[in-house]
Amino acid sequence: MIYVFDTSSYRVLGNYYPEQFPSFWEMFNGLVSDGRIVSVREVLNELELQSTKAHLDAWVQKNKQVFLQPSAVETEFVSQIFEVTHFRQLVSTGNVLKGRPVADPFVVASASARGACAVTEESMRENAAKIPNVCDHFGIEWTNVEGLMKREGWLF
Q1: Can you say whether the dihedral through the CA atoms of 115, 48, 85, 131 is positive or negative?
Q2: Does the reported pTM lie above 0.70?
Q3: What is the H or E stretch that residue 125 is in?
Q4: Beta carbons within 10 angstroms of residue 10's beta carbon
Q5: How far apart are CA 74 and CA 148, in angstroms?
Q6: What is the 3-state secondary structure (H, E, C) of 49-101?
Q7: Which of 2, 90, 111, 116 reaches 20 to 30 Å from 151, CA-CA?
Q8: What is the pLDDT of residues 101-127, one digit of tens each?
Q9: What region, left, alpha or beta, does residue 25 occupy, with left being phi > 0 and alpha being psi -120 to 50 degrees?
């Protein structure tokens, strides 16, 4: 299974300090090396604007290859997402006015194009325009970091 990471899930990784969780990072980086952890350029842009923890910032800079440019298929899928009027709320007016990146629709589109699982810390909320809602609408798998660990059988 390929996993497409959202910004919120990378932030969770900031809580796994490499010195205290070396086995976690070894397994996570193994998935990265195998091409099973990917993300999108907009997530990189969000992370660079919202610096979190030094070790995570360093990991992001060292692993920029996981943050992929959207393909034509993904761009087309983003337009399909926005055909659903309710999902246009994924892009807030504030983000548009301030020119801030918006990763959510690209995360979903990347997961769709790859037959992958979107990884986000957002939760399903009735009538919300969140990654889990969009994924469910389009039949795309989604989970969070804990769910990834369970799927991969990681125990510490």
Answers
A1: positive
A2: yes
A3: none
A4: 22
A5: 23
A6: HCCCCHHHHHHHHHCHHHEECCCHHHHHHHHHHHHCHHHHHHCCHHHHHHCCC
A7: 90
A8: 899 999 999 999 999 999 999 999 998
A9: alpha
